[in-house]
Amino acid sequence: AIVAILVVAVIGLALYATTLPAGYAVERSVVIAADPALVREYAADLARWDDWTPWKEIDPTIEVTLGERTRGVGAHQSWTGKSGTGELTITADDPDHGIEYDMAFDEGAFVSKGALEWEPVDGGTRVTWRMWGDAPGLVARLFFHFFSMEDRIGQDFDRGLAKLKQVVEQAAAEAASAEAPAEPESATAAE
Fold it and tell me: Taking the model in full, what pTM does it have?
């Protein structure tokens, strides 16, 4: 009787999984008080991702290996850590609008696409970080349903975008102060 109940439960879960969406999409945005060109320096260069992405905070054991190119189509990085292995390759690069990339986790067992997009807006640059893909099988659909990709990845994107905002706005402030003219000496100082 217990075996029959388990079989019915497994069949029921499998049938339920077929009704779930095969794909997922996560998107977060932030406005950064800086020019798009400065945002691009950090967002489009994989060598700068350690400055702002949350991955090393989430998994301190992660080791990132950069490819020969860190910018532009074909730029590549791979990583290994407690949370698994993966690689990322930039597949599209538009200096005025953003980058797209492919990611593969655990030797290609899970593949997704991502993008970092930027556009000028009042007050700076809106940066949107997106990730989308298909659930590879019924078990993955159930996993994505019960452990929401929107919540899990969305929180990571929020952390990364907040750090990107901090880093880029600090760089913009430092650049502005370096360009500011020196204050003239006061008359009393000259005496």
Answer: 0.79
